[in-house]
Every structure is written in structure tokens, then in C-alpha cells.
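Batch manifest line 485
LIGAND: uridine-5'-diphosphate-xylopyranose
JOB: complex structure
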Amino acid sequence: MAEIAVIGCGQAGLVVATAFASKGHHVTGIDLDRRKIEACRMGVAPIDEPGLDELLTQGLASGRLTFLDQYPEYPERIPAEFVFIAVGTPTSPSGASDLHALKSAITRMAPALRDDAIVVNKSTVPVGTCDEMVRLLRRSGAPKATVVSNPEFLQEGDAIHNFIEPDRIVLGSNDPDSLERVAGLYEDFGATVVQCDVRTAEMIKYASNAFLAMKVSFINEMASICEVLGADVSGVAHGMGMDRRIGAQFLRAGIGWGGSCFPKDVSALEYAASLHGVRAQLLRGVQETNRDQRRQVLRKLRGVLGRLETARVVVLGASFKPNTSDVRESPALEVASLLRLGGAEVRVVDPHVVPESVPAQFPYLDVTGDLMAAAQDADALVLATEWPEFIDLPLEDLAGVMRRPLIVDGRNVLDDRAVRAAGFIYRCIGRPNAEGGGVTLPEDRADERLDGRITDWPTVERAERADRERIPSRNGRQAAALASD
Ligand code: UDX
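JOB STATUS: finished
ARTIFACT:
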């Protein structure tokens, strides 16, 4: 078994540390955030990741996992042959990656490294950074240090599974001996180890995330086209995904992607390309399509309510996706913010997110865990994060307390028939027929369309106009008329 250190006990670092300890290695977690280290020492994971608490307590109980809140002072050494770095590399205002935490970790750890230590980089860094890390290590007191790029592909909410059973392990270095030694760490993972040069490894990370983000933006663009052509994007995604070359994952249309990685990584890759004179117009389009997706919700609401000013809207979800309380770059919060800026009165409901964790840029958002209280006299619900409790809503109860029975399903996860049967108007993304507008031409006129004589194919807007005329407020609402919709 090996001696391992992990610098940075955050979202990725803690998973790496506890997982390697569970495989029998001796692991030292190092982080300068004392509160974080105190929590780890008490077996309470400072990040919200299913299964992490169990791995943490198991590692502590076995004595194979310890934590330090400072670097050993020379002549003390970090007792590890493999020193993983998993510190944050956020995006700076210019669009470049902020590498301050990485450089600080390098200069602090260098004097305390063993001569045979290999630094293994897990942080997502611009291509070429590992080469700089070698130079900085050697200038900072570790003249023999080498660096291996080992990008992580951990999805929040499924990170432990992703680490223990990876699709592949990527190792990049210009030092064959270091590559072989790090590959030995992963021998019992049973996954293919892709060995390549260091820059290729760094690029695999960016290209993988950019491609996944592009897949989502692609299906969202298809959703917009489906809306005007009367097709169903969920059916399109299903039919596409059967093709092994395409694959079914990351084809769920909705309000788009967020989180701490996709936005940062796509932006950093485009920035790096532009620095070298390459116009990454596809990456630009991927980001623009994603930004526009949030506005689909406002379009749907205006289509039924007519206007947003003074409308009371409840946004279901604050986290950027289910199974995490992480609200970084959350599409749900961006939708809530746009609604607020559009003049609506907005309440955000997410039982898994504490209001204090909502970023400072959204100080005016009222975040609560009480769905029924928030829905009181509301004009619309917007499903923005597909938590299980939002997929299985108490529809009849909600219809009874809301001023208008309208749901915009921003993740296409609700049963449109059940929603309408409960008296709601249902809107979603890229599924015009599911919206009950039935916007298809009567059979006897379909051929006129084919001849090009009909250009204004009835679209969702027409159905929305019809709904607007049909939907009085709760006081005069004909629930029966709605239910028959
Ligand atoms: C991502 C990558 O998947 C992971 O490999 C990398 O290491 C870190 O970034 P994560 O940020 O946890 O992981 O989220 P992910 O599960 O990939 O979802 C990203 C975003 O795309 C979320 O906002 C999600 O809601 C959205 N998404 C995903 C869709 O809108 N549709 C989909 O079909 C899939």
C-alpha cells in the first residue's frame, strides 16, 4: 500500500482522500481551512456528497486517514510518495483561471516533499499548467519533483461511484517512470488507464466537459426548433440516444446547465483558444444557447399570464441540479433572478439548500423549504431543479391554494396529463403537444403546409394566447373548464 497526501479537502479532494483510504492506502488530507479540517477529524464531511460521511468515518476508524490544517515545517516532511493536488481553480473576471490557490499550495508544500514524491494534479487547469508546476516546484525547494496530470471526472451527487468505478483514468506526464508509478496506484480499479503527454491529459478534461455541455445545449436548441415545428424533444432525444455513436446521456432538455465546472471550464477553454487567436465559435454558441435557455421560462409565463409584473411565481429548486445542495451557477437561481428583474414577486423553494448558501449576488431572493406556504396565492410554479419531491408534487393541494393553476416544467419531468387533470395549465420545454395545445394542423390542411402555402404553422404561442383568454383568475376560474383542457 502507498503513502498518499491530498492537498485541498473540498468537493474532489475529500472524495479522493477517503476513497484511496478505503482501498487500504495511508492518506493525509491537508487543508488550511481549520474549520474544514476540524469537521473532517470529527467524521463530518464539510461537503454534501452521498456516501462521503461513511467513507470518512471508515477511514478515520481504520487509522489510515488523518488530516492536517497546515504544511509540515522543514525538516518535517509530508510522508507521501504521491501528493494529489485538488484545490479550486475558479474563473477570474477576465475569463482566465485563477491559479493563486494552486501556486500557493505548490510553494508551501515544495520544501516538505520527499525526494521521490510525485505531485499528481487533480485540479482543472489551463493546458500547460503542469509544466509550470514542475518549474515552480523545483524553484521552491523540490528539485527532483515531477508532476502527473490526473484530471477528475466526478459528478456531484455521484462522485464516489465515479471515482471508484471510473469510465477511464487519464494520466499525463512527460516522465515515463512517474506515469508508471501513478498507474500502479490505480491497478485495482479495473479501469482502462489512458497514458499520454501532460498537455493532452489537461486538454482531455476541458474537451470532455465542453462536449457534455455542448450536448445539453444542442438538445436545448433542438427543443426550441421542436416548439415551432410541433415535434417532441423528449421523443427526439430518445430516438437519437439509441444510436451508440450519440448515446442517451446529457440529452435532457430544460433550462440548461450550471454548477461549478461546466460554466468555468467551457469559458476557460474558449478564453485559452482566443488568447492564441483561435475563434472557438462553437464554444461561444454553447454558452449563448445555455444563457438563452433561462429565458424560455419567462416566455412561457408571459404566454399564459400576459405579463410578469406583480405575478407571484414560486421557483422549485435552488441547487444547480438534484442530489446536491451546491448552488454555484445554478440555472434555478438565474431563472429566479430574471423573474425578479422582470417585476415578478419570486419565492424559491428548496428543502436541501440553506438560505445563507444562496450567493451574495441574489440577496433579494427569498429561499424557503416550505412549499405549501410559498404556493399560497401564487400565479405559477416553475420546476427548475428536478428534486424527487418536486417530481411528485401534491398537485391537488397546490391547485387549491394557488391564485392561478399554472406550472412551467423547466426540466420536462412532470406527467403532463396528471398536471392537467389536477386543474393546471402545463408548460414545458420543447414539447408543444404535451402542453395540451395540440398545435398540429388538422389533417385536411396538412398538405397545404407541405406545399408551403401555410407558413405560420400554429405554434405554442397560439395555444398560449388561447389559454390566456380562457384563464380567468382564481376568483372566477372555471376549474372544470381547465380540467377538461
Ligand atoms: C460535471 C461533469 O459531468 C464531471 O465529469 C466533471 O468532473 C465536473 O462537471 P457536475 O458539474 O457535477 O459534473 O454536473 P453534471 O451532472 O455533469 O450536470 C451539469 C449540468 O448539466 C447540470 O446543471 C445539469 O442540470 C445539466 N444537465 C445535465 C442538463 O441540463 N441536461 C442533461 O441531460 C444533463
